Amino acid sequence: MKRIAILTAGGDTPALNATIHGAAVRANQRNIELIGLLRGFSSLFNPRVPHVVLNPLFGMIPELDPTHGGTILGSSRTYVDPDDAAQLDKTCDRLKKLGVEGIICIGGDGTLNGMQSICDRIPTVLAPKTIDNDLGLNYPHETDKWVRETDASAAAGFRYRINEEGASTENGHFQIDQMVNYVTPGFATATFVSAGGVCRVRTTAESHRRIAIIEVMGRHSGYLALGSAYGQPDLILIPEVAIDIDHLADRVREIYDRQRNVVIVCGEGVRDQSGKILGASQETTDPSGNLAISGAAEVLRSRLIDIIGDDFFRWEDRNTSAERAIFTRKVGHTQRGGRPLAFDRFHAAQLGGKAVDMLLEGCNNSVAILQWNQTEGFHVSTYDGNGFRDSWGQIHARSVHSTFYDADRLQISTKGVEYLLPIFRQAIGADDVEHIKETLFDSGNLVRRYHSVNTDIEKRLRFLDP
Ligand code: F6P
Fold first, then answer.
1. To bridge 353 with a disulfide, which of 22, 100, 176, 181 should be the other Cys (CB 3.0-4.6 Å)?
2. If pLDDT is split at 50, 70 and 90, which confidence band does 283 have?
3. Rounded to the nearest whole angstrom, what is the distance from the C-alpha of residue 274 to the centroid of ligand 1?
4. Model-level pTM?
């Protein structure tokens, strides 16, 4: 193999450039040319296949900065249609003309689905990324536990359900070191942002005797909500556990009575007891059927206003009304952007390097994974792409394992804490702190315009002569 292509697809994360950088470093060590395809799979639809040579003469282009969030290659949720054989032939033909002998896709579950059809024609591997931390398995062969829904849940849009009974327990304990792809790059930085947001909202809720509902990303997976526990919210709601609104209102009243403020974190995909997603959902182009979800916090707010009512707040003049006391905030895309923390940078780079090695070793339809155990700590390994599929070929978002969450206290459980500790114990590097000190209030920021890396990459574009 002489030349490899790399692309970034799906929602971005702060660690994508770090993964590309890790791949470029390894490609240089192994004398492989690395070219970057633009905006996910999009450039493959263009007969001229716009691309960038990332390691000319086995050096490194200066735009590829592993500490810069986002991706210099751009990303999209556009995928090759697996049923369109003619388009697939054209696409792969273009890649062959470019001399591409293997592809690294940096992506999540949607990308793993999307790259499948290309694997039959050109060796392709996945280097995982997602702030949602939902690409992985809670235990090997977890996919065997998925069953099809037959009843009302299916009508509500939930066609599959995991049957965790008796799964992966040893002496009745779920073993975290069995997890496949323990954590994905991007999750630590996103959690840093959401937990920080929780801390900041807290003090204002405290001052004004208010109840804050903070919506964090993560779609159907509650890892980001769970990680926000570092910001010490009073209550955490995750999509995996249906909300009992009366129980929630009881907990809110109890906490408010005690401290005159409450901070609730909810994952954007939280559901009510009928299984319905609280927020509004919209179809996307993602091949894993991912929905765009938004607005759960607003729905929760109006339900709590109805149940708790004004009198509760007016008593002892704690606030003027339920409307005034209960407010919502979305952490939103700030979770996906900015400088990646040391944890994400380091492990993203390792996964990028591993993906290069995998292609050179002859892997195809495989995933570079990040494993953790007590003796070795974090280390990279390989997993078969089909190992993430159930018997119907579906890839499901990894859910927060039931032992990680205390559904009665609406809080992270002891086991959940055990899961987070290895990731966050040393997630922030000294340079991350120094970076804030040196750059945020740099007086030059006030007079210099932001210089987007896109303008430089544009000048490096190369094309295939059709
Ligand atoms: O998958 C990453 C993610 O950030 C989700 O947490 C969120 O639901 C979605 O992407 C938002 O996507 P978009 O970029 O289309 O707003």
1. 22
2. confident
3. 24
4. 0.95
